[in-house]
Amino acid sequence: MASASPRATAAPARYSGFLKRRAAITSFILARRAVRILMCAGDASGTSSGPKTIGSAKPCSRKRTAAARMRASSPSGITSLRPLSLILAFASSITLIGIPLRMVDMSAEEKIEIHRGLKGVYFERSATTFIDGKAGELRYRGYSIHDLAQHSSFEETAYLLLYGELPTVAELSAFDEKLKEARQLPDEVLSIISTLKHGHPMDVLRTAVSALSSFGPDSLDMSPEAMREKGIRLASQVPMIVAAHESIRNGRSAPVPDPMLSHAANFLWMITGRVPSETSAQLMDRDLILHAEHGSNASSFTARVVIGTEANLHAAITAAIAALSGPAHGGAAEDVMRMAQEIGAPENAAAYVKAKRAAGDAVTGFGHRVYRTEDPRARHMREGVEQLSREMGEPRWFAILQAVVESMKPYARFGVNVNVDFYSGAIYYLNGIPPDLFVPIFAVGRMPGWTVQCLEQLQNNILIRPLTLYDGPSARPYRIISQR
Q1: Phi, psi of 131 (to 5 degrees)
Q2: Where in the chain are the domains?
Q3: Model confidence at 289, in pLDDT bands (50, 70, 90)?
Q4: 241: which residues sit within 8 A by CB, 6+ positions away?
């Protein structure tokens, strides 16, 4: 703090008091004028119902032009504030006749409702995915997930998500060609994967995607066209990374993609080293469709937060992968197969469920943050597991899962229903895919969804910055360390 001047120090106490009172009166007059202008702004907008004067001041109608100008440039909602709130706000730093006035804490007047986990909060509009949790309905760009799962392909669904419309034959062919051309990784990224070969597949995937940002000539181009092109490349490179890591950690060289195979079939080929059966390829294709998009889930919201800072697409996808790696978001499929192995036989399912519920533990694969009825995606995976388990000669896994579903039926009325990941893990397991790759497969399917979420965020971008309500210690003095 600057020291007082000699003149001010030498001033008589009486004169000093006069100066303070004059400063207080001047501050009050200025504040009163500012409040009058704000009240006129409210009057001009038709929201003010209070008196048109303050004290003996003249009516504020003559200020209407200035008020209208101020209203046009003011933040949204300021003209609808109550006059008392305005007076208290402007008096926050004023001293009247030696009495300090403090700004009233608006939270004391208005109830603050905290939505933990942002549950039930709509933070943005989206033209991509419609979800009705009560009815159990899911649509991509207006198309039912049931129609897409039964009749579409992952390539067609990815095009739909990225461009907003179903493709023509020519458009789909060109899009498929782009995906196939992108089935390659730089040698430097393969070297990174080799260095990290003992790491968890999700950690390796996150790091490799981040590294890919350094090899794209358009990595910093944020135009919609460039974002889509990068998203298409990543849709092919993500499964390449997962497959390369699986091969390298098992002492094999990175697999060579087969341009004759579809996106899903090629992924199974690279993971297992075997050309998949028609049933296996169709089920993997359906699984990728069902996981392609799902609104503002944890990883998609993370991608939006990051792209909202105007970081590049690779940074947003890297962050989304990090969010997906958490077991609370993407770990259900792996946990379901672990549970099925622990149960061992269908006749043990009822006792397992009873013990879990008695202990207050959740039964993995049941319940969803959005759906209060059965996940609409689950039925398509259930049919697939039954078909594949018979084809593979291992029907017991489907039998165990169905026994668990039967044992959980009494809890359906509480909104605890089967979700899509309950059956996904069995399909991966029957295809010979290691359990620690179950979550990376989720990422393979979700790539188009993450990309379109980023595209939507940038269409009308605003930095995502919610609030937290402070409930820590009140103001307290700082003591230097020698006095503590």
Answers
A1: -130, 125
A2: 13-106, 140-459
A3: very high
A4: 185, 189, 193, 204, 205, 208, 209
Between the CA atoms of 238, 244, 246 and 250, what dihedral angle is there, to the nearest 10 degrees?
Answer: -170
Catalytic residue among 287, 335, 375, 421: 421
Residue 316 has pLDDT above 70, yes or no: yes
The active-site residue out of 329, 335, 361, 380 is 329
pLDDT at 45: 43
Of residues 18 and 191, more confidence is placed in 191
Q: What is the mean pLDDT of residues 15-38?
A: 57
Tokens read off for 345 = 């036989």
Burial class (CB in 10 A: 0-12, 13-18, 19+), 482: exposed
Amino acid 61: pLDDT: 44
Could you tell me the CA-to-CA distances from 363 to 231, 291, 338, 353, 408 in Å, in that order? 35, 21, 12, 7, 9
**Whether residue 329 lies in the annotated active site:** yes
- Which of 319, 172, 190, 178 is closest to 235 using CA atoms? 178
pLDDT at 97: 39
CATH topology of domain 140-459: Citrate Synthase; domain 1 (1.10.580)
State the Cα–Cα distance between residues 314 and 312, nearest whole angstrom.
6
Of the pLDDT bands very low, low, confident and very high (cuts 50, 70, 90), residue 33 is low
Residue 216 has pLDDT above 90, yes or no: no
Interatomic CA distance for residues 457 and 315, integer angstroms: 14
Distance CA 23, CA 44 (A): 32
Least confident window among 29-33, 72-76, 161-165, 476-480? 72-76
What are residue 131's DSSP bridge partners? Answer: 138
- Which amino acid belongs to residue 53? T
Q: What is the pLDDT of residue 93?
A: 43
Burial of 345 from C-beta contacts in 10 A (0-12 / 13-18 / 19+): exposed
Residue 479, helix vs strand vs coil? coil
294 is catalytic: no
Least confident of 87-91, 129-133, 469-473: 87-91
Contact 190, 244 (CB under 8 A): yes
Catalytic residue among 245, 263, 291, 368: 368
Whether 239 and 158 have beta carbons less than 8 Å apart is answered as: no
151 assigned to active site = no
3-state secondary structure 395-433: CHHHHHHHHHHHHHHHHHHHCCCECCHHHHHHHHHHCCC
**Residue position matching structure tokens 């493709």:** 167
Question: DSSP letters along 196-241, please?
Answer: TTTS-HHHHHHHHHHHHGGG-TTTT--SHHHHHHHHHHHHHHHHHH
